[in-house]
Write a structure and sequence with these properties.
Layout: H1 2-17, H2 21-26, H3 31-34, H4 39-47, H5 63-78, H6 84-104, H7 120-141, E1 143-147, E2 161-166, E3 218-222, E4 236-243, E5 248-252, E6 255-258, E7 261-262, E8 271-277, H8 284-289, E9 295-297, E10 304-309, H9 311-318, E11 323-328, E12 358-362, E13 369-371, H10 377-387, E14 392-395, E15 398-401, E16 404-405, E17 408-410, E18 415-419, H11 429-432, E19 435-436, E20 440-450, E21 468-469
Antiparallel strand pairs: 1-2, 2-20, 3-4, 3-20, 4-18, 5-6, 5-12, 6-7, 8-10, 8-11, 9-10, 13-17, 14-15, 15-16, 18-19, 20-21
Length: 473
């Protein structure tokens, strides 16, 4: 996949340049240069009067696509095709438009700036502007960098993982708050002020998608709880999508069930375990070697721990000489944890659910109607009002939506259920509910760098994780 993303655009562009012999001749170069792979690219940069060092950008996935678009527009300019129709045709149909010009139209080479060469300062300004515009387009519509800040996805994704998140898999979302400072999500660096203006707000729209959000994929989305910010400027979260529209889900004694069956569990999923030793403590180096990083001693007394463990680490801890008991933490059904800052649904008396015994619940699907009453309204109230923009009133046990009495509601969007792989240390949909489709940012695709914050350079680099594709299983 990575090979295709890097070399696919380079090879295809090289082939197109091989068809531009007339252009090369008019620019004062030999026709045969156009037919020589890779050398023709270097000659191409000479024709547009740019340094061949720009070709370095070809090795960066997605950036190389933007680079090719820029190369085509600059090529048209030096052959006196600066008019808007030609530029548009070059941007969207350059692979067809350039060969057509080469074979069927008169060609005149005028250079990039007939009245004189660009100054060095102008070259740098142009390069900077191009980089900003290209990176902004890439970040908005193609791919965005993301960092794992918390342990909620351990051990599938680690704190210190740097990801590329694909925007185009689920269909790139048009920015709903388009006036914003480049590269700042919602807060200006240093100043701490808002990085966006709400003078213009665009409706929710997505470009055509390659695929729908699939069950068990790692998905980046805007946190629905931040109602004080525009949707696309809310904090970015990453979780595993365990429930897609129409799924029924239930957590029974810590085990997730989807549509009545035990849900898929990744190999490195973690649960919390109470661990009792013979009174001695575990050697910190032993825990480090096992990569047990979440949890620790729970009392001042020696030998009592609460640790987040994978199945493999559970077996390792259980078989240690000083271990007396290892028991998975399970909150009994009907017992609501006092530590919960949020709870979904918010009615604790009607829905006394907890992280280990939760549901049953059905994930809303676009176009599907559900019956609503005062008992189940807490499940759907946020959808009806905050996410889908209706007014809701409750009078004498009756429900009014947009001033009309009703006992049903039809969903306008699809919704998703997100959970962390570190099941007992993840603030996820169990705490704040469904994720609307307009909050979906993209698909976690590639780990391009991974740094262990507990270590110093260069031992902090997790070499085995570099450039690893994020898989569902």
């Amino acid at each position: 996949m990575l090979f295709i993303l890097i070399f696919g655009p380079v090879i295809s562009f090289t082939i197109i340049v091989m068809l531009l012999g007339n252009f090369f001749e008019k620019a004062g170069l030999e026709r045969k240069l156009a037919l020589t792979p890779f050398a023709n690219i270097l000659s191409y940069f000479k024709i547009i009067e740019r340094t061949p060092l720009w070709s370095i950008l070809f090795v960066f996935p997605y950036i190389n696509i933007i680079l090719i678009i820029w190369l085509i527009t600059e090529f048209l300019k030096v052959f006196n095709r600066r008019d808007i129709p030609s530029q548009i045709l070059g941007i969207f149909f350059g692979y067809i438009f350039l060969p057509v010009l080469n074979f069927v139209t008169p060609i005149t080479y005028v250079g990039s700036k007939p009245q004189g060469k660009r100054s060095s300062a102008r070259e740098w300004v142009d390069a900077l502007l191009f980089a900003v515009v290209a990176a902004t387009i890439i970040r908005a519509f193609i791919i965005e960098a993301y960092t794992i800040p918390t342990s909620s996805m351990e051990k599938t994704l680690l704190v210190g993982d740097f990801l590329f998140v694909s925007k185009f898999h689920y269909g790139a979302r048009v920015p709903m708050t388009p006036i914003a400072f480049p590269f700042a999500h919602h807060t200006m660096p240093v100043f701490g002020t808002k990085s966006y203006l709400e003078w213009i707000k665009l409706p929710y729209y997505r470009f055509p998608k390659i695929q729908s959000v699939e069950r068990n994929e790692m998905v980046v989305f805007n946190w629905p709880q931040e109602h004080f910010r525009p949707v696309d400027k809310r904090e970015n979260y990453i979780k595993r999508c365990v429930g897609i529209p129409g799924d029924s889900l239930e957590v029974i004694n810590g085990i997730l069930h989807i549509n009545g069956e035990k849900a898929y569990e990744p190999v490195d999923m973690q649960y919390q375990y109470y661990v009792l030793t013979d009174g001695t403590n575990f050697n910190p180096k032993t825990l480090q070697e096992l990569n047990i990083t979440d949890g620790g001693r729970i009392t001042s007394n020696k030998g009592q721990y609460l640790l987040s463990l994978t199945e493999k680490n559970y077996e390792a801890i259980k078989n240690m000489n000083n271990t007396k008991r290892v028991e998975r933490r399970i909150t009994p059904k009907g017992q609501v944890e006092e530590f919960q800052r949020y709870h979904f649904p918010p009615d604790l008396k009607s829905f006394p659910w907890n992280v280990d015994n939760y549901g049953p619940l059905v994930v809303p699907k676009k176009g599907v109607s559900v019956s609503i009453d005062m008992n189940n309204l807490p499940v759907y109230e946020r959808i009806i009002t905050l996410y889908e923009g209706n007014t809701l009133q409750k009078k004498d046990g009756k429900i009014f939506i947009n001033d009309e009495e009703t006992d049903s509601y039809t969903f306008k969007m699809d919704y998703y259920w997100m959970m962390g792989d570190n099941r007992h240390n993840s603030e996820d949909s169990r705490f704040w509910g469904f994720v609307p489709e307009d909050h979906i940012v993209g698909k976690a695709w590639l780990i391009w760098l991974s740094l262990d914050k507990a270590k110093n350079f260069p031992s902090n680099i997790r070499w085995k994780r570099l450039f690893s594709v994020i898989k569902t299983d």
